[in-house]
Known about the structure:
By secondary structure, this protein is an alpha+beta fold.
Amino acid sequence: MPRRPALPAPAPEAERPKLHKVLAQAGLGSRLEMEKLIAEGGVRVNGEVAHVGQRVSAHDRISVHGQPLRLRAAPPPVRVIAYHKPVGEVVTHSDPQNRPTVFRTLPRLTQGKWLSVGRLDLNTEGLLLITNSGELANRLMHPRFGLEREYAARVLGALDEAEQQRLLEGVRLDDGPARFERIEAEKGGDGANQWYRVTIAEGRNREVRRIFEAVGRAVSRLIRIRYGAMTLPRGLRRGHWMELGTRELAALAAAAGMSAAELNPAAASAAPRQRRNADRSSKAGPRPAQPSRRNAGRNASGPLPPAPARPRGKPRGSQRS
């Protein structure tokens, strides 16, 4: 009886990532969104409907809604934009009511799409992080990392000590208990209005407004001023954006447990080759350092530059008040 040819050994699990992670790394959405897409039957692998938790290799043929998906050997470098969202814009790629969206002025991507890190409702302004990495977006939003969101809230009337204590200890909302991690009154105010700076550790829908409403206080204006390690850049006007530089991006990713190799897999894989080339050329003597074009216009004295290194999302003349 002829002997059957030996079958190739299956690839190790580390070399066969889960499908929803591959799709997220390609910039098609967050991991949760990709799991939902797979569960709805929108993804096929080698012509068959995929299932949640399925692992794939580089040789598998993947299609999304019938369109073949070409995956690079490594995902593109992670990019993050800090956008100063104004009141009146919605955080969606397409709106049935044809309202302006936060994505309309962003630079075009050659692969994937821009993803928002959480949302801000129509009447809330301030810092909105937008990235091309579904993996980073998922980590920044995941409760496991507990990244703080800080807001400036204008409230009708000053809170007494009992009300502040309730907000810190926790109140009951329709979707479960919620509380502020910190609350601090700001100086000044407009008539009967009082400004407060508050911090939460999660990002449920309209959470800050609902927490205040639980003690009978209405929020007339709400501005997000910080998300994790990233604060709203000083001087960044409403409706404008700036792209984070290497240092700011690394600090933001580190807070979400993401390594430098995960931020830029192509650069990480090229590091050994670069070291070998450096060893070969060491006999030629040191070369003069060359300035970095990417960060040439950045101010290294603070956590963020006062002006963006890349063009703004809108021309100066289009700024709204």
